[in-house]
User: What shape does this take?
Amino acid sequence: MNVTIAPSSVAGTARAPPSKSYTHRAILAAGYADEAIVRDALWSADTRATARAVDLFGGDVDRRENGTLEIEGFDGRPEVPADVIDCANSGTTMRLVTAAAALADGTSVLTGDESLRSRPQGPLLEALGDLSATAYSTRGNGQAPLVVTGPLAGGDVSIPGDVSSQYITALLMAGAVTEDGLEIELETELKSAPYVDITLEVLADFGVEARTTDAGFAVDGGQSYAPAGGEYAVPGDFSSISYPLAAGAIAGEGGVRIEGAQPSAQGDSAIVDIVERMGADVDWDREAGTIDVSRAFLSGIEVDVEDTPDLLPTIATLGAVADGDTHITNAEHVRYKETDRVSAMAEELGKMGVETTEERDSLTVHGGSSELEGATVRGRADHRIIMALALAGLVADGETTIEGADHVDVSFPGFFGLLEELGADLERRE
Assistant: This one.
């Protein structure tokens, strides 16, 4: 699907979609349990991949009409899958499920689409190997397809922290049901640390105790997953909130209200402060979970995305509209997402007349010396690139066409419908 967006102002109320990060963890945690209900779950291409994996491990994920997931788990002991586990485009699914597969007393095979088969999995495979499992890449390059044979033993393991925090999440979730638990030593500084905080929060809500240590993280073995009252509710997603929030900041002449923005462990809630620092009129009522934002003159700032990599595309678009330079730092790990998001935003915004300076670990957007112009841009099969470019289309001079825009289904299936409800002038074409 291609989407063409004409310059538009936006106003009205937007509801935050459920968090993708929390939903992934909740579905798998419910799989590790005997049974559980997950309410307010995001049902997207990525989270469906995690649900399919739970089914293949011997569980059953049943989605009700109200969006509630009723999950029969595999009670900490996954069966050997009867088929290849297809993780589609979901890196979170692949990493979390790879560790779960190592608990099975047999062999599992995991793969995904072309993009996912280019993403690094090597450090996690090595860690599983150090814990008595057999885990390798069929091509010997640390990338999917992956072959994993259990069972996994507990013990001590070391792993780099600067490639993906999802490795630590995967090990903690699996380690809780091993006999001896896990002690995880970080070999390098942890990037995207708030995502591990999310994991610790979800584990606690499912009755599993994990903790930080001087060297890294630890989880005791022999634990059982069981949420209080048998239910868990997924909070709103601040990665997704960043898009209507930014839309309000650059095109919200009538003001935009965002609902479902209760505080949580999500590092991406930093987007509220970032937009405010750039000069937008923002009011976050944390108790009510509402954010009000309206258009204002924006100025470039410096933003460190070490802990918030998913915000880079949104910040880059804000920088294209702002006066002066927006310098996005500590961004090298953002290159290992669905696509190299640093280069992708530099190149696609460049088609729209935006000047950027790209370095290995940073992206500088020269908004003061750029004029946003409508153009045809590529979504690059990356939901966050697509949504960020759609924001740019709201304020560009002329129409902007985004090719391959259907990939928003990965995390925000109703994104373009929401933009239309807020007043955006857009047209979809298959």
The CA atoms of residues 298 and 322 lie 5 Å apart. The longest strand covers residues 2-6. The chain has two domains: 2-17+236-429, 20-233.
